[in-house]
Design a protein that fits this description.
The structure holds two protein chains of two kinds. Chain A is mainly β. Chain A is 0% helix and 57% strand. The relative contact order of chain A is 0.35. The chains are: A mainly beta, B mainly beta. At the A-B interface, strand 5, strand 9 and strand 10 of A face strand 10 of B.
């Protein structure tokens, strides 16, 4: 079956750096996506990786290794507003999005 | 403000009742989707539509139906609600098919008693 694994919850300190990992096993691969979802709100698109390597977008970076079925989202200079759930999703060979259950990130002052 | 509007925001419903969740977008996106989000699970696709006039089944379509009479509207109907349909429902759209970059509505929280 198809599977996306990410930690359920992580805690980090304001101003620090945190890495949220995502491993996947899917039928084919057509890209990996990260979304941010604040409690009670809609998911919003953060990043897209289809080739191996690091994509940087301001304080957020996303890394992909297709051979390892692995990605991470790196958040730098953490702010309290970064407290949210981070969802990893993979597009399979049928262009269906497979979603992880999300990682709840708690930022402490 | 451009985006996706869902209604109602929240609803409590008796089992066996019929319910329609409304979704309207003003971005002229071709593709639209309905997902449900349950605690501890990833988003699960219920139904989708790649363009007006066409619909398709997602991962968990049973008990739900959709229609796509025009580009903007994509209602989701529960013909006879059951408690297992208690969930948060998100409507989403994308400007093209075969993309994972989706725009989501704010969600509709449905409780079936």
């Amino acid at each position: 079956g198809q599977n996306i694994d990410q930690p359920t919850e992580m805690t980090a300190t304001e101003g620090a750096i945190v890495q949220i990992n995502c491993t996947y096993q899917t039928s084919g691969f057509n890209g990996l996506f990260w979304y941010q979802q604040h409690a009670g709100e809609a998911p919003t698109f953060l990043s897209y990786n289809v080739l191996d390597g690091l994509e940087e977008k301001g304080r957020f970076s996303s890394f992909l290794s297709r051979s390892k079925g692995y990605s991470y989202l790196l958040l730098k200079e953490l702010q309290m507003k970064d407290s949210a759930s981070y969802l990893c999703a993979v597009m399979d060979s049928n262009y269906q999005l497979i979603w992880g259950a999300g990682t709840k990130l708690i930022i402490k002052p | 403000i451009a985006g996706i509007t869902q209604a109602p925001t929240s609803q409590i419903l008796a089992a066996g009742r019929r319910m329609t969740l409304r979704c309207t977008q003003d971005m002229r996106h071709n593709a639209m989707y309905w997902y449900r989000q349950d605690l501890g699970l990833g988003l699960r696709l219920i139904h989708y539509s790649n363009t007006a006039g066409t619909t398709g089944k997602g991962e968990v379509p049973d008990g739900y139906s959709v229609s796509r009479a025009n580009t903007d509207d994509f209602p989701l109907t529960l013909a006879s609600a059951v408690p297992s349909q208690t969930s948060v429902y998100f409507c989403a759209s994308s400007d093209r098919t075969n993309t994972g970059e989706l725009f989501f509505g704010e969600g509709s929280r449905l409780t079936v008693l």
